[in-house]
Amino acid sequence: MTKSFILTIDVEIDAGRKWKTSNPATYEGVDKGIATLQRLCNDYGIKPVYLISPAVLVDQRSVDYLGSLDTTTCELGTHLHGEYIGPNAKYPGPDFSGCDPQEMQCQYEKEIEYQKLENLTNTFTSLFGYAPVSFRAGRFGARGWTIHCLEQLGYTHDTSVTPHRNWHDIADFSRPGSLSPYHPSTENICAKGQSHIVEVPVSITPNLEWLRPTPRFSNLDQCKTVIDWYEAHVTPTVLCCMFHNVELVPGKNPYCQTEEDCHELLHRIEGIFQVLQERNYQCHMLKEVTVEV
Ligand SMILES: [Zn+2]
Q1: Which of 102, 186, 203, 251 meets the CB 3.0–4.6 Å disulfide criterion with 148?
Q2: Would residue 121 count as lying in a domain?
Q3: What CA–CA distances, in Å, run from 189 to 79, 234, 269?
């Protein structure tokens, strides 16, 4: 049985300790953070997917950098933080200095959620010259309707489901229908259904241990525990690891304040890559994942 690994990176504007955005707005997490990560990924044949927030798409330098990446070694997709894009944008931009993103798209009226996703998708397409097919909701705030919208907008893959987690009773994934990739229902994102979207859940155990090498989340031993648990309990084993680009730059995120913190994060990431290599994992872009029946 083949085992697969997907690396997903939420690409954000630089932020402070509680995700409030930098003031003035900066984007070091894009060029510095991603450059560091992509080098490491290239060494191990990992092909990350960079899921880009609308707060990053207003910055021409960031767009130029992301557009310059070799699309045979990584994938670009979208990541909705709905306060940064209309209709009804809480922060109209294009200057997103000192913003405090709190919204979850599953709380919008359905038509508003659709239009924000449509605007994000069209913005991506006009900037990069092709349509995105992979998506993650900001703060994991997706629902069945989100899947319907993504399908209408030409997406093929979503990675918003965080199994076993319940986010403030707003996005509740505490009863996951599958820990392997599946076609979700447009009524209930956790349940298997008839949509064409491939849902690739983030790897989280019933004990709420994440495959998330971020300081405060999982150290390398805990990441290995998650990998072992998935190998023992989930067939096919498809691991989905997540963190944010900004974590790779000191002081531009809530978790890594110093160079040492960032080195520790990189050490954990490389440690995961080494385990995958030893255990003969296949590494895929998100858009390449298929549902095994
Ligand atoms: Zn985000």
Answers
A1: 186
A2: yes
A3: 17, 19, 29
